[in-house]
TrEMBL record:
This is 3-hydroxyacyl-[acyl-carrier-protein] dehydratase. It comes from Chitinophaga polysaccharea. InterPro entries: ApeP-like_dehydratase, HotDog_dom_sf. It comes from the Bacteria.
Length: 141
């Protein structure tokens, strides 16, 4: 069950057709969990599965949702973030369209405007993808 009742775009800067999370499941300290219902017409679906770029964008948007959620709780504008680096990306399986995946990110460290996160995408108890990302936040936007 999602912890918000409004549109997910209130928490992330992306807009259709690039929105890659359906809602926030949990924000608890360094942990964020989101869900995505993979629509068959999703821009990143090919041959009935969510492709690797879609999985990476899903992880990045999960990290962004945490920042947006915190900003909304503090009544401040949602800042814009950029992926600076991806490390140790593993794509183990591609989840099928029409299904729900769950993605988690855990903050490893935050230094100035750079945040290191580890991300993992799960489907039916199996790891689909995982990586580390360095995300830069621009609080001025």
């Amino acid at each position: 069950m999602f912890i918000h009742t409004d549109d997910i775009t209130a928490y992330i800067p992306q807009r259709a057709p690039i929105v890659m999370i359906s809602g926030i499941l949990e924000v608890d300290g360094p942990l964020t969990r989101t869900g995505l219902h993979i629509a068959p017409d999703n821009i990143f679906v090919e041959n009935g599965v969510l492709t690797a770029p879609g999985l990476m964008e899903n992880i990045a948007q999960t990290a962004a949702a945490r920042i947006g959620y915190i900003a909304k709780q503090q009544n401040t504008p949602v800042p814009l973030g950029f992926i600076g680096a991806v490390k140790d990306l593993e794509i183990l399986e591609l989840p099928p369209a029409g299904q729900m995946i769950e993605t988690s990110t855990v903050i490893g460290s935050e230094v100035f405007n750079a945040t290191m996160v580890t991300g993992k995408v799960m489907y039916e108890g199996r790891v689909m993808a995982q990586c580390e990302m360095k995300i830069f936040i621009n609080p001025q936007l």
